[in-house]
Amino acid sequence: MGNYILKRLLLMIPTLFGVAVLVFFLLRVAPGDIVELKYAGSGTFAPKEALDRERAQLGLDKPLAQQFVTWIAGAARFDFGESMWTGRPITDEIKVRLELSLQLAVMATVVAILIALPCGTLAALKHDTWVDYLVRIFSIGGLAMPSFWLGILIILIFLIFFKWLPPLTFTSFWTDPRANLMQLLWPALAVGYRYSAMATRMTRSAVLEVLREDYVRTARAKGLRERAVVVKHALRNALLPIVTVIGLEFAFLIGGLVVTEQVFNLNGIGMLFVESITHRDYTMTQALVLLVSFAFIFMNFLIDLLYAWLDPRIHYQ
Amino acid sequence: MFNLFKRGLTIQSARFWLVFGALSVLPVMATAAEAPRAGGELVFAVGETPPSFDGHRETTFGMLHPIAPHYSTLLRFDPQNYPKIVGDVAEKWSFSKDGLTLTVQIRKNIKFHDGTALTAHDVKATYDKIIFPAEGVASARKALYAMVDKVEAPDDFTVVFKLKHIAASFLANLASPWNFIYSAERLKKDPRWYEKNVMGSGPFIFGEHVAGSHWVGKKNPNYFMPGRPYLDGFRAVFIRDTAPRVAAVRSGQAVVEFRGFNPAARDDIVKALGNKAVVQESPWACNILVTLNNEKKPFSDPRVRRALTLAIDRNEASKALAQISVMKYIGGVFRPGSEFATPPAEIAKLPGFGKNIEAARAEAKRLLKEAGVPDGFSFVLKNRNVKEPYEVSGVFVVDQWRKIGLNVTHTPLEGGPYFNDLRQGNFDAGIDFDCEFMDEPDLYLLKYLSSEMSPVNYARYKDATLDELYERQSRMLDLKDRLPIIQQMEKRAIGDQAYQFPLLWWQRVVPHSSRLKGWKIGPSHYVNQDLRDVWLAQ
Questions:
Q1: How far is B443 from chain A (nearest CA, A)?
Q2: Closest residue of B to A84, CA-based?
Q3: What is the CA radius of gyration of chain B?
Q4: Can you give the pTM of this predicted structure?
Q5: Do B251 and A163 touch (CB under 8 A)?
Q6: Per-residue pLDDT tens for A133-184?
Q7: Which residue of A has its CA nearest to B216?
Q8: Residue B197 at interface with chain A, using a CB cutoff of 8 Å
Q9: Is B13 exposed, middle or buried (0-12, 13-18, 19+ CB in 10 A)?
């Protein structure tokens, strides 16, 4: 197992390198120039020489290969340089936003699990009854409704009926848990509901399949209580695909909640992503793509490890 | 909104209009019965984040709104009497008889936030940075000070500007809200220090900045104006999207958003806040322009360009677009109502600005035919992908051109590709904009100089007559001498030649909580943002 873990960790490196190459060169194919954008505001009369000087300062006048080598060498040391837009260290810019995005991802995942596991299992157990139909309607509703739209509804309900809005700025949970939850609970519910919809449907179908297995019939025949049959035998065996869905969705939440962040005015990774692309902030975009790629690769890895823990029949060498 | 007029006023909507109408004319300054109240933290929303903290380098209100309160400028516009110029750091000033030397005496009691005294040497260092930036230091508005030969500080409280030639706009440019006064000592150690640091002499001291989230300023207890600022501090919250920004003001979490909203957002806020809302409105020193690529056929033909401006019904645009956007006023090169603006009767004589649209469109079709442009001629109008007022303008203009038989495709682009295409000349027609901090011909007319002389003219033409007129008006101090030349330039640029032409000027609408006092709206969202006169009622 130790060898397997080491091998997987080492395999992350060429994967991330491939991502780095792709993102670096693809960004430079897109039209637009950060310097032109910087000087495009009102009241600006910057001549071409000033723009060229600015480009030189940002290293944009160097050959592409040289820019890439400089950047990748820094990335290897976890030094992603400075944002081309703000001039501030990228790690600082990301750190400010990562806590919020991570917390939101965790909260949405918890909401999803708390809804998906019981509802999906119940729907499977009460297959083709009104309970099953209710759960299916609930989960299809979650799939059909974009989370940002649900977020807009939540905001409007607060505004119209309660004349209240969640706090505008992020407070760390460790500083003020109440203010923190007052801001993040609502987007977590909006995102978690949609997240739970997929997980509920996966849970339902996985448990349904497992309930038909011989060992479940044997467990019932042995006289085990229904709760033990469902939790210890059925659900346990159905967990593998559920864990996969939940794990991959968690990775997506790190940088994928752009519109939800806009609706709730959350200073998260998603907004930073969009701004960096809009501004043609190459260094920031590259760093964020690497971050999100790492999140996906790492989650995949964790899921694979979880498989081995959940199912003793799975061995890695 | 539009349906209210169609269906007739309901009682509810009548009540709304009564409240709204009353609120629009409410006085916002302290009356005899309302003395400024010290204390409180002003929370306001800002729609953009500051790229860097250096006012000399940046061009966005996203920098100015949170950061201007930390700094003083040499001169400023009187917030109660725009465009009157008053001193900030400057106590008094005078020009030499020949107009080539400006001597400024600065106040003696000003300190930077680190306790050091602000002297003439700091002012000199600041203006050297703006006008003669060192290698690697960006100065976004350097070109506006081309008339300056040198800046001197003969003693601690005297600054002398020596000019190469008389320049009508020079004094007003010294009142630029972007010209934060920096410490000479800091600049000497690192001329780029202010890009990432804040240390001024303004009414507020830097408190906290969380990137992408908020900016906090605290009252400067040693501010040179006794009794100011009234506020204990301010918190600028960055809210990029319009809907949550409106929601923030609506809910009372933010007292105001200083840049401005469109009429629909104003109405939402007024409806939500009721008698706790105040609305301030002002013509805005911003416009939308249609820019043509004069290097490309058939736009190189002045007949075609005149046809394109003739086709646009600006009167209809003013009525229709004012309901859904900030676009409102018909005007030429200068903000309607400003001292340099051509009177409406004269503007109406320019092609495209008259009232008889049918005759104008008939003439446009005739011109196109004469120029050999076939019916159904296709081209592309490039635009920014910002809904309001850019896309709204683009959609309107395309519709107007279709009425004279042209087949125009509207292509909104992201900011990067948009500016790239405009600068590279990779376009047929484009929607451009002009937003200035003051009604100064040297600023607005810069857009109409030959493209090689003006970095903000994307229309790609050379016109020595316009260049010569610009230089002449720029050196005339007397308005009565200057105006005829300005009008001549305007007539040529947007009328006879129609290289590029304004569509409409904007209306600035700032609805806010009635708690906000001491702030008066002006035509520019860049000006009057130091918050020193602002206070919060209970």
A1: 8
A2: B51
A3: 24
A4: 0.89
A5: yes
A6: 999 999 999 999 888 899 999 998 988 888 888 999 999 999 999 999 999 9
A7: A169
A8: no
A9: middle
